[in-house]
Amino acid sequence: MTRFGTVNWSKIYLYSFSRKFYKYIMTNEDIVWEELSGLPADPPDMRDKCIQCRRPVAVCWCPGLPKNPLNPASRLIILQHPAEVKRCLRTAPMLTLALEHGKCLTFRGKKFPLPKHEGLTEILKDENTVLLYPSPGAIALDELTPVGTNAQKPYNLVLLDGTWPQAKAIYHSSPALYFLRACKLVGVSTSEYVIRTQPTEGCLSTLETGALALSILERTPRIKEEMLGPLHYLCRFQLENGAVTHQSKEFLIKQKSYPKLIGKRLAKQLRVLSEEP
Ligand SMILES: [Zn+2]
C-alpha cells in the first residue's frame, strides 16, 4: 500500500509514458495532503457565538439594537487603535450595527491615513469632515451648523477609538488630523457605561460619544436614545450577573476611596476640573 492508495501503477505506465499524467497525480495528492494537514486537530471553537456581534450568545447585546438600523445624514469615521480590537467590552461594534451600512466606517492603525486605509485620505480632505478631539482650538460640537441649516451638508465625524493615551498617541502621530476642524462635547453627563471605570466624569465610551454627537449634529435626540440600546442592555445584563458598578476615578478620588495613588497628570487634570466654575 502506498500513499497513493488505489492508484493503479501499471495503468499509469501504460497510459502515459507521460510524465505529465504522473505529475497530475502528484499534484492532486499534494493538494489532498495539504488540505488534510490544514485541518485543525480539534474541532473549531463553536461555543455558540452570535453571528452579528460575535460575542458568546450568553452575553450578546443585539436584542438592544434599534429594530431597523438608523440612517442619519452624517457618517461616523472611527479611527481605531489596534489594541482596542482585543478588548472584550468595546463599544464601537455597537455603533456599526446600530447604523445603516456605510454610515459608520472603521479604519484601524496607530497613525492615519496609511496606504491601506482606502478612501480615508479623501474623507480627511472633505470640507465637511470634523474631528471630535479636545485639541486647543476645538469648539463645542453644538456650535457647528446643524445638517440642513444654511445648506450645511452632512458631516463626516471622525472619532478616535481607544483609551485616552491611545487616542492622544493617534492624534500626535497623524498630522493629517491637525488640519481638521476640531470640536468637543461639552457639558456631558457621566458615562452610562457603568461597568467600565471612566477616567473622569464626563468621559464617554465610543458608542456614547458617537451617538450623542450624531444626535446633536442632526438635531435628533432620538438617535442617541436608540443607539444606546445595546449598551443599556449589556450593562443591565452584567449588573444582574454580578458585575460591580464602577464609578469614575474622579468620583472615587473625591470620595477618597480610589485605591491607587493617582498619577501626576490625572491629579493636575482633576485640579483643573475642580477649579472650573
Ligand atoms: Zn449579538
Automatic annotation (TrEMBL):
<dbReference type="InterPro" id="IPR005636">
    <property type="entry name" value="DTW"/>
</dbReference>
<protein>
    <recommendedName>
        <fullName>tRNA-uridine aminocarboxypropyltransferase</fullName>
        <ecNumber>2.5.1.25</ecNumber>
    </recommendedName>
</protein>
<keyword id="KW-0808">Transferase</keyword>
<dbReference type="GO" id="GO:0016432">
    <property type="term" value="F:tRNA-uridine aminocarboxypropyltransferase activity"/>
</dbReference>
<keyword id="KW-0819">tRNA processing</keyword>
<dbReference type="Pfam" id="PF03942">
    <property type="entry name" value="DTW"/>
</dbReference>
<dbReference type="InterPro" id="IPR039262">
    <property type="entry name" value="DTWD2/TAPT"/>
</dbReference>
<comment type="similarity">
    <text>Belongs to the TDD superfamily. DTWD2 family.</text>
</comment>
<dbReference type="GO" id="GO:0008033">
    <property type="term" value="P:tRNA processing"/>
</dbReference>
<keyword id="KW-0949">S-adenosyl-L-methionine</keyword>
<feature type="domain" description="DTW">
    <location>
        <begin position="46"/>
        <end position="243"/>
    </location>
</feature>
